[in-house]
Every structure is written in C-alpha cells, then in structure tokens.
Write a sequence for this structure.
C-alpha cells in the first residue's frame, strides 16, 4: 500500500450508497479486526465518523448501514486492525530527551558493550553535536552496567578521559543512577564534605570520602537536573515532538508522563495549548515535589494559601479527568524505592550478590526512611480523592505501600480511586490478594524478563526468586485487572517487545524466566489496551473497538493472535490512527 490512500475499486461501490447523517467518514475492512471487546472479540469492518466509531461488525452489515458516496473505504490488505495502544507507564519527555542525548544503550538497542566503547560513543557525540558547547554539558543516556564487560558503573576518571573542560553526566538505563565527571561534580557542588541526601547515596572512592562520580536515587534526582541546559519553549516543543513521534511509530494513541516536576507539567501544558500534541498525554505529578501546587475542584487540601483567588495561580497544577488540547494531569505519583537492576530497590531479604562495598545483609533502601512521610503523602491523596500511582519494585517497598494504603482507606474509605502499583518487580505471592483487597491495579514490567532476566538470576535475586519477577500470570489467575508497560526511556516504548516479553518471557540468552507467569497474546493485548484505559478511568471511551468510542486505531503487519509466539517481536506497526486521522504511516505501508 502506498503512502497515498487508495480507495477500493469502483466495482465495490455497486451497492446503492446509504444517504443521510449516518454515512461514515471511513470504513476499515479487508483484514482481521481484534476488537478487545469480550462480548464481540472479532469483526470484519469498523466504521468511523467525526472521530468516533459508529459501527463494528460484519463487512456486509457495516457497508449496508454506513457506506455513502463520500465514505473512504480503506482496505487493510490482510493486515490486522486493533485499538490504539494505551501506555500504562512511561515518561514521554524522557523519551524526547533520549532522542537528542548520546545513545549509551547496549545491544539490541544500542552499541555499547564496554566502558571503552561508552567513552568512544561520548567522544563521537561531542564531535557530531555542536549544541554540546552551547548547552554546556554532555548528556548520555541509558548505559547499563549489567551489560558492560566490566560489570560495573564507570568512574569519574573514566569520564574525565573523555573531557575535563565540560561537565559530563550519563544516566543509567534504570533512570535511578547517574555518573558525573569531575567537572560535573564541581559544577553541582559535590565534594568530599557533601553528605548523602535522605533516600540517596553519593558513592565514594576507597578513602570513603572522595566522590566516585556515581549518584544513586535521590542524590541523582537532586543533582543531575542542575546540569541540564536551560531550553526555550521552541526547544522544549521539539523534544516533546521527538518523543511523541516514537510513541506514534509504536502504535500508542495515549502516552504518559509518569513522574512530572512542576516545570515538566508546565511545559507539556504549553505544548498542548500550542497544538503540538498528536496523541493524548496523561501527566502524573510528583506528589513529594509539587504537593503545595496541586488542585482539583473538590480538593480538601490545595495550595498553602487557601484563598479561592489562588485558583487562578498559573503555577497551580490542576488535576482533571478531562483533556484540554490532548493533555490532562491525571493524578499524583509517589516513589518508594529504586531499581532492582541498579540494586537500589528495597527488599526484605538481601541481594543475591551485594554491590561492592556493601555488607552481606544489604537489601536496598527506601526512598523515605520515615514511613510517616509516606503515610502523609498517601493520606493527602486519599483525602483529596486523587488517584495515586506508586513506584515500588522491591517487596519491602510493596509492603510499605500495602500498609499505608490500608491505613488511608480506613480513614477515608476506598472509593473508586484506582491506586496503581508501578513496576512491582518483586511482588510476592502473598501480597497479591492484599493488593486485590485494596483495589490496587498492578502495572507490571515483564520487559525485564528480556532486558535483565539473566542479571536478575545471576546477580539481583538468584535463580529461584527471579522466576517470579513481574508475575502477571499469578495476578491474572487471581482475577485482577493489570497492565504492562515499557517505562520508557528505560526501555524503548516498543509495543511489540512489550507484547513479546509478556507472552514469551525469554531472556537475552533465550532462557524462559518464569514459564507459569506467561500470558496468551490476547491476555497481553488486554493489558495494553482496555485495562490501561480502565487504569486511566477512560474505559468508556478508549481501549476497545466499540460503537461510541474514540477512533484510536493501530494497524499491524500480522495478527498477534495467530502468528507463532516467537515472532511477535517482529510484527510491525504500519499505521497509527488518532480520532480517525492517520498520525503515523510506515514508509513501506
């Protein structure tokens, strides 16, 4: 099929056209249609008018009721039509930033297998990117010590070997660690006398004092942003567009900003108001950072100043279930621990192999050592009836989530808040019914089975515990709705890799990690379409092909329900349609 849409041959128009207001703008037919509507799971044709689905069913019935003289007839040519994918958790602006940073990914997504290769990528990036000097910083993203030959983080000295006259900061693929060169440490003011922030670690050299360049968790989150360049509105819009285009190419019609600062929210809203968003974006503001700025119409707590006139404060962050120019702040985000692959997630038992310099009983650590702080944030969300999505990877962090949610529900009732557990890598079997009782939606991360499955078995948790990471099969068997995600830019928002990892759970070496936790393709597609729509309170308008829902569609090169499961990752997104309009078309389509 060429880029120019071809109408079906005139001979197919022999049936007398239907006249009147019911005529559809377009009808898709000629290939498998997977509706994700359990009552009618497949169809032959879908008709759309004014951005909404007006008919789903047999080709004969849809043509008879909806085809008019001006209806565009779109032949799928045997390709497969599904609802547009709904991103359950990721970071849109981070994907945009990744698009302009030095690519430090390891295969299959990047070239870096060793620290010397990492250094060379940075040198090449500096030479090829004139803006580096303008920005005043060299930014690299997504190095992964688990995939480096040295099996460790680079040091400041190794980054100094790239450049000493400009700050360098490289961000770990988990997003929870970073490494700076000496110039970077100096610019942000980190010295041997700098103490660790609560919930974070400034790693030290052998003397126990000199910073090594590695920053973990809240040390990274506190200092790395100080190195990032100040950009104008046009540059910010360009980053957002770069990220958005990657989602579109992977069939997503709704994307998430999964941990937004006040500045990020302001930038996304500005882009929306400028008409830059082609897909829906749901923003989750970091509750610990922006609590005093958050408002909703029915908030009990809002800004520190209770004056109603403050409702017009341009710094206020308005939570809403309604989109404005394809953007809304969905609710709030809280982070309780770190990254299992970075060995900062909080466990109840020690790591299988503890990081160098740690004691044998090292089990990670919480983001908030004082649980009263966590309880205060959760109570604030419940008091104001805000949905809260909570990053918790280790089972100790999940225990903390269960305790604090339980306490908040005793005080304020459960309601229909749909709290979300983000990642839940080391969710224990006994925690699943507790989450179900609390009404928690697990948004799990089976992409880890491919990217870090071998690392989990050999280093993080050992062979036995690693079998149960991201236990989507167990959650499904317990009758829970759940979602799966990419956490981009930690991994690319590759929809077919998300699907493949949930169905096959194969590691980089081909080992099947946790065969009992595998899903069928249809079950995995539920977790990428209708169930994340439910997670967003949008199940009435998205996530399945049903009359009255928005015409958010994706065309795949093959049928994920019938191709061999080992080839799911090879399926291609040929087209993405938002509200009835094509927003991405593959070059070969």
């Amino acid at each position: 099929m060429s880029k120019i849409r071809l109408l079906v041959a005139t001979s197919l128009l022999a049936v007398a056209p239907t006249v009147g207001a019911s005529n559809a703008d377009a009808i898709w037919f000629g290939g498998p249609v997977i509706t994700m509507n359990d009552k009618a799971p497949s169809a032959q044709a879908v008709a759309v008018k004014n951005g909404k689905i007006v008919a789903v069913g047999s080709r004969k019935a849809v043509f008879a009721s909806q085809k008019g003289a001006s209806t565009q007839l779109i032949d799928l040519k045997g390709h497969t039509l599904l609802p547009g994918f709904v991103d359950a958790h990721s970071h849109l602006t981070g994907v945009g930033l990744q698009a302009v940073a030095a690519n430090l990914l390891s295969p299959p997504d990047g070239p870096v297998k060793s620290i010397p290769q990492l250094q060379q990528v940075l040198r090449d990036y500096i030479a090829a990117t004139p803006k580096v000097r303008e920005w005043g910083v060299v930014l690299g993203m997504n190095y992964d010590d688990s995939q480096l030959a040295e099996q460790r983080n680079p040091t400041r000295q190794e980054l100094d070997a790239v450049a000493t006259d400009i700050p360098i900061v490289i961000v770990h693929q988990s997003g929870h660690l970073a490494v700076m060169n000496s110039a970077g440490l100096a610019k942000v003011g980190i010295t041997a006398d700098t103490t660790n922030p609560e919930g974070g670690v400034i790693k030290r050299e052998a003397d126990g004092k000199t910073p090594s360049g590695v920053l973990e968790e809240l040390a990274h989150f506190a200092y790395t942003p100080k190195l990032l360049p100040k950009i104008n509105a046009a540059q910010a819009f360009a980053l957002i567009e770069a990220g958005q285009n990657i989602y579109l190419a992977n069939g997503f019609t709704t994307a998430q900003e999964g941990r937004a600062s006040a500045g990020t929210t302001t930038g996304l809203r500005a882009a929306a108001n400028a008409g830059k968003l082609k897909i829906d974006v749901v923003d989750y503001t970091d509750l610990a950072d922006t609590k005093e700025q958050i408002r909703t119409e029915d908030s009990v707590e809002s800004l520190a100043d209770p004056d109603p006139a403050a409702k017009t404060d341009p710094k206020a962050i308005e939570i809403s279930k309604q989109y404005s120019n394809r953007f809304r702040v969905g609710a709030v985000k809280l982070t309780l621990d770190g990254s299992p692959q970075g060995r900062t997630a909080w466990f109840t038992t020690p790591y299988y192999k503890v990081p160098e310099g740690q004691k044998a009983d090292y089990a990670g650590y919480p983001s908030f050592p004082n649980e009263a702080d966590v309880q205060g944030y959760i109570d604030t969300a419940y008091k104001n009836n805000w949905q809260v999505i909570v990053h918790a990877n280790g089972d100790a962090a999940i225990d903390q989530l269960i305790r604090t949610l339980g306490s908040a529900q005793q005080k304020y009732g459960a309601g229909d808040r749909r709290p979300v557990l983000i990642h839940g890598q080391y969710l224990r079997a006994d925690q699943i019914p507790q989450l179900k009782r609390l009404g928690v939606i697990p948004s799990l991360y089976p992409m880890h089975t491919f990217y870090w499955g071998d690392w989990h078995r050999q280093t993080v948790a050992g062979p036995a515990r690693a079998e149960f990471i991201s236990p989507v099969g167990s959650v499904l068997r317990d009758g829970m709705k759940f979602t799966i995600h990419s956490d981009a830019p930690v991994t690319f928002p590759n929809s077919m890799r998300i699907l493949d990892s949930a169905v096959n759970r194969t590691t980089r070496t081909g080992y099947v990690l946790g065969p009992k936790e595998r899903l069928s393709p249809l079950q995995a597609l539920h977790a990428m379409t209708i169930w994340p729509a439910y997670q967003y309170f949008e199940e009435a308008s998205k996530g399945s092909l049903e009359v009255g829902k928005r015409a958010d569609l994706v065309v795949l090169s093959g049928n994920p329900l019938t191709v061999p499961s080992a080839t799911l990752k090879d399926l291609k997104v040929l087209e993405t349609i938002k509200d009835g309009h094509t927003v991405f078309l593959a070059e070969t389509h």
User: Anything to note?
Assistant: The chain has 20 helices and 24 strands. Residues 395-412 form the longest helix (18 residues). The chain has four domains: 10-83+549-585, 92-227, 232-331, 336-542.
